[in-house]
Design brief:
Length: 327
């Protein structure tokens, strides 16, 4: 049973995302009006206003939207892969694996492309490790899965702390903010937006397969789905989305948990709806969170990961409580 029809859900999400973008453009340590934003987009605003909007706030808002959408889509795919509504890249250590690998690449002075590849490898290794350990010699359970993910996430956190302790002092503050989610230098939105559009489009095309796989491997095999190959594809896509998110803005948690769960509550479990709706809602949520991070204590900026965690932790505890009662 769905609470909101798709005909109403998507226009509402699009309107909300546009509104969040406008709020992000007009808000900050130097507030400007909506008219000035429009003039900047049209190219008729004064140079200082146009620079503020076009060169600073617009790329940051677009990057936040792309990364938020990627994290939400990664959460949806991971929940299908592991058939657990509590699965998401941050909780299960995928983000931590990507962050450790990216930090190692940075410490060795590798270029941006190699840092991306390292993060992808770290995210892929972490996801496969969680799945392999949780499955063990038999079928995995939600409890075993979550415990495995939490333990590995703690291990990656310890490794990150060690790497920070070995880093030069002049780089320490920037690295800490990056690890907590920092969009101060997020001015290249193209790759995250293109990747989000590609994954979402491919996910909509493969939504029927995702729906079948979410019901179990046996049901998927019965209808002729190549389960092993399809799982590997989801592993790779999830790791890639997480890696690009981490290398772009750092580690941001709980979007992949909060957004898909809320979408399923209001729109059901059909991935033709869940996947694109989660992409829109995840992007909108991170744009709003980043706007709050820039404006709450302006001109000082807060790490956006702290704000998403403030929302995600209570919901995670509620979901854990509900899961325990259901069990």
């Amino acid at each position: 049973m769905t609470l909101v029809r798709p005909q109403l859900l998507f226009p509402a999400l699009i309107a909300l995302s546009v509104t969040a973008g406008i709020v992000a453009l007009i808000s900050g340590s130097a507030d400007i009006t909506a008219q000035q934003v429009w003039q900047s987009l049209a190219g008729t605003a004064p140079d200082n206003i146009r620079t503020l909007v076009i060169d600073l706030r617009l790329p940051r808002a677009l990057t936040a939207f792309g990364v938020g959408g990627l994290l939400a889509v990664a959460g949806v795919l991971m929940q299908v892969l592991l058939r657990n509504p509590l699965a998401e890249p941050y909780i299960l250590g995928t983000s931590g694996g990507a962050a450790v690998a990216a930090l190692l690449a940075m410490m060795f002075g590798l270029g941006a492309t190699l840092v991306d590849f390292a993060a992808f490898g770290g995210a892929m290794a972490a996801t496969l490790l969680v799945f392999a350990i949780a499955q063990g010699s038999g079928s995995w359970t939600p409890t075993r899965l979550l415990l495995t993910g939490v333990v590995l996430a703690a291990g990656f956190s310890a490794a990150t702390t060690l790497l920070l302790a070995l880093s030069p002092d002049q780089n320490l503050r920037g690295m800490l903010f990056w690890l907590m989610g920092d969009l101060n230098y997020a001015y290249t939105p193209a790759r995250s937006l293109w990747l989000l559009a590609t994954i979402t489009t491919a996910g909509i095309i493969a939504a029927r397969h995702l729906n079948v796989l979410a019901r179990g491997d046996l049901q998927a095999a019965i209808v002729g789905l190549p389960v092993a190959g399809f799982r590997l594809i989801i592993f790779a896509v999830t790791a890639l989305a997480t890696a690009i998110s981490v290398t772009t803005v750092g580690v941001i948690g709980f979007i992949g948990l909060v957004v898909p769960h809320l979408i399923r509550i209001v729109a059901g479990s059909d991935h033709r709806i869940v996947l694109p709706a989660s992409a829109l809602a995840g992007g909108t949520l991170l744009v709003l969170a980043d706007t709050l991070a820039r404006t709450l204590l302006a001109p000082r900026q807060l790490p956006v990961g702290a704000l998403t965690a403030a929302l995600g932790v209570p919901l995670f505890l509620i979901l854990m409580s509900r899961s325990r009662r259901t069990g």
